[in-house]
Amino acid sequence: MVADDSPGLKSLEALIGGSLLENLSKLSSTCLAIPANKDFHFLCNFDEFKLRIDEISGSSQCVLETIGGFCRKPMRYSGDVVGEDAYDWLVNLNDEVLQRIDLDLEDTMKKETDSKHGKAKVSFHIATIKKPQEEYKILVNNANVPFEHVWLEKKENNLGFIHPLEKLSVMDFVDKDISEMKPVEPLSLEGIPFKLVEEINDLKDLAAKLSSVDEFAVDLEHNQYRSFQGLTCLMQISTRTEDYIVDTFKLWDHVGTYLRDIFKDPKKKKVMHGADRDIIWLQRDFGIYVCNLFDTGQASRVLKLERKSLEFLLKHYCGVAANKQYQNADWRIRPLPDVMTRYAREDTHYLLYIYDVMRVDLHTVAKEDEKPDSPLVEVYKRSYDVCMQLYEKELLTENSYLHIYGVQAANFNAVQLAIVAGLCEWRDRIARADDESTGYVLPNKTLLEIAKEMPINVGKLRRLFKSKLPYIERNVDAVISVIRRSMQNAAAFEPVVQSLKTWHPGTVENDIGGVRTTVSHGSGKVSVDVSEEQSGGFGALPSKRKFGSENKANEEVKVSKSKPACVSKPDEVIILSDDNDEYGEETSEPEDAADSVSETPFKGPDVSINVKTFGPDIIVLDDDDSDDDDDSDNDSETGDGREREVERMNKISEQQGKFMSLKPGFLNI
């Protein structure tokens, strides 16, 4: 915006001989008043009329060009007169200016409100930070092909990879003698050495230190908003005597080299909290695969604590009140502020002591309840399953547009659905090429709003924006082109619209006597997950677990569960308890940003339950920090009732039609 007393504005008013507002009003009236028909061309034969029109056109064009220069939006003027093109341009420019004023006022009012209530806001996204991928020359492969686990052996059929844990047993990691163990009290943050690891020599020293200890605590800080697959920003490691923070940006190509074997070593205990996503981030960014994990988040569930978050554990066991507002911070920032350094250290500094106390508590519970399967063993089973996850890259498939959360409940017609498909493919291409999240390029809510309104010109498109979207601003003409071309392909989406109309409203997940049944709409299948009974309520995980060292060679127990990871196979629906939200971990984006980042494959109707999206291909059901999953009230249901319900769900699934598949690239843009 130009200030009222700015030299530029005074120069402009001097040029046009009056106030800017008065002349803009005259200009708009003139643009509307000029007849665009045969009468106008007839009147142009008269010299007096033609002379007057030339005067108006000349001064008006000069004003428009000057305005465009100030707003950095030059007018694309063509023709001999100021007509409809100029008017449309002026209207669009006016819309944009008003929108900017709106956003600035909204931002100012929000800051004033936060200041009034004493809220120190921690920004989840600082736009001025240079992308680490560029700053530190971090290479990523966003090609639309499956992720290759190059550090793992391939299976004989070449259809998967062999995790190092498959050669080990859960019982190899279980502590043998807990009864005589005494927890080691942690020193204060100020009373223990701290090292920020930024150089290769420092990383070598850290590796040497970890090689000399039997256990260490680990945590990661992550950013999902400004990269396509996500980016590990920091790695925190604590031993009994020292704290470390590894700047993974500066040592990106070296972290795996020096730490890979240490994390894989089955003789060294790794203690983490809510490690579901940390495990796959380590695989994706550094080729690190974890063996011998104790997840304090899983332990809190087995112990049925009041809450499962790390914040709660710090308060409960250590009397430390953690400042959790920094979990929403932009961890790409460098240099790291002192308050964020302290927060990062707290995530691992006390974790080994919590690990000690929890093992004692688990041993005590086993003696009191006389359970056949030790609670401590149960924690290691669950931690084993967490480690067995393998990272999978999000892929653009022929039905990706149907996986955007909310699209199937929107009741879109063929034209609107075609626009969703076109924009989904467009933003995926942009995001992969520029290493941005699809939500940063074009948020889900905005994409669906565009499809709903079907704007076919720039002015109407801009009026839909409720926030600043840099990629749309820079590519507004391309977006309009995508919309128009998509609309021309609308007929191909009619069968999809008809298929969507056959879905019946309902929930995707039902608890029937403690057995979870999930209908995968469109696949004709119902999966039955009995993980509640088998593992005491832990969110389901696909695993191959070996129990008992004497049966390593031939005793393999396969548990069919869904997978709590940030990514999944493109055609899977993944639903799990919101462990990490309870943990208070890694929810680094606020609600609007989380929606922006996540592209949730979701087949079937919309679900009217508490659903949170955290990343590609994942739906998280809010557990609300309760222990209901461990003590279901439905356990008294009979087996016959379960079978009838499963049969009913199968019949519903069989009645569903199949979606028509459209190949990516149908827009040819």
TrEMBL record:
<dbReference type="GO" id="GO:0080188">
    <property type="term" value="P:gene silencing by siRNA-directed DNA methylation"/>
</dbReference>
<dbReference type="InterPro" id="IPR010997">
    <property type="entry name" value="HRDC-like_sf"/>
</dbReference>
<dbReference type="GO" id="GO:0071037">
    <property type="term" value="P:nuclear polyadenylation-dependent snRNA catabolic process"/>
</dbReference>
<dbReference type="InterPro" id="IPR045092">
    <property type="entry name" value="Rrp6-like"/>
</dbReference>
<dbReference type="Pfam" id="PF01612">
    <property type="entry name" value="DNA_pol_A_exo1"/>
</dbReference>
<dbReference type="InterPro" id="IPR002121">
    <property type="entry name" value="HRDC_dom"/>
</dbReference>
<keyword id="KW-0539">Nucleus</keyword>
<dbReference type="InterPro" id="IPR044876">
    <property type="entry name" value="HRDC_dom_sf"/>
</dbReference>
<dbReference type="GO" id="GO:0005730">
    <property type="term" value="C:nucleolus"/>
</dbReference>
<dbReference type="GO" id="GO:0071040">
    <property type="term" value="P:nuclear polyadenylation-dependent antisense transcript catabolic process"/>
</dbReference>
<dbReference type="GO" id="GO:0071038">
    <property type="term" value="P:TRAMP-dependent tRNA surveillance pathway"/>
</dbReference>
<dbReference type="Pfam" id="PF00570">
    <property type="entry name" value="HRDC"/>
</dbReference>
<dbReference type="GO" id="GO:0003727">
    <property type="term" value="F:single-stranded RNA binding"/>
</dbReference>
<feature type="domain" description="HRDC">
    <location>
        <begin position="413"/>
        <end position="493"/>
    </location>
</feature>
<dbReference type="GO" id="GO:0000467">
    <property type="term" value="P:exonucleolytic trimming to generate mature 3'-end of 5.8S rRNA from tricistronic rRNA transcript (SSU-rRNA, 5.8S rRNA, LSU-rRNA)"/>
</dbReference>
<dbReference type="GO" id="GO:0000175">
    <property type="term" value="F:3'-5'-RNA exonuclease activity"/>
</dbReference>
<feature type="region of interest" description="Disordered">
    <location>
        <begin position="529"/>
        <end position="657"/>
    </location>
</feature>
<feature type="compositionally biased region" description="Basic and acidic residues">
    <location>
        <begin position="547"/>
        <end position="559"/>
    </location>
</feature>
<feature type="compositionally biased region" description="Acidic residues">
    <location>
        <begin position="620"/>
        <end position="638"/>
    </location>
</feature>
<dbReference type="GO" id="GO:0071051">
    <property type="term" value="P:poly(A)-dependent snoRNA 3'-end processing"/>
</dbReference>
<dbReference type="InterPro" id="IPR036397">
    <property type="entry name" value="RNaseH_sf"/>
</dbReference>
<dbReference type="InterPro" id="IPR012337">
    <property type="entry name" value="RNaseH-like_sf"/>
</dbReference>
<protein>
    <recommendedName>
        <fullName>HRDC domain-containing protein</fullName>
    </recommendedName>
</protein>
<dbReference type="GO" id="GO:0071044">
    <property type="term" value="P:histone mRNA catabolic process"/>
</dbReference>
<dbReference type="GO" id="GO:0000176">
    <property type="term" value="C:nuclear exosome (RNase complex)"/>
</dbReference>
<feature type="compositionally biased region" description="Acidic residues">
    <location>
        <begin position="578"/>
        <end position="594"/>
    </location>
</feature>
<dbReference type="GO" id="GO:0071039">
    <property type="term" value="P:nuclear polyadenylation-dependent CUT catabolic process"/>
</dbReference>
<feature type="compositionally biased region" description="Basic and acidic residues">
    <location>
        <begin position="639"/>
        <end position="651"/>
    </location>
</feature>
<dbReference type="GO" id="GO:0071036">
    <property type="term" value="P:nuclear polyadenylation-dependent snoRNA catabolic process"/>
</dbReference>
<dbReference type="InterPro" id="IPR049559">
    <property type="entry name" value="Rrp6p-like_exo"/>
</dbReference>
<keyword id="KW-0943">RNA-mediated gene silencing</keyword>
<dbReference type="GO" id="GO:0071035">
    <property type="term" value="P:nuclear polyadenylation-dependent rRNA catabolic process"/>
</dbReference>
<dbReference type="GO" id="GO:0000166">
    <property type="term" value="F:nucleotide binding"/>
</dbReference>
<dbReference type="InterPro" id="IPR002562">
    <property type="entry name" value="3'-5'_exonuclease_dom"/>
</dbReference>
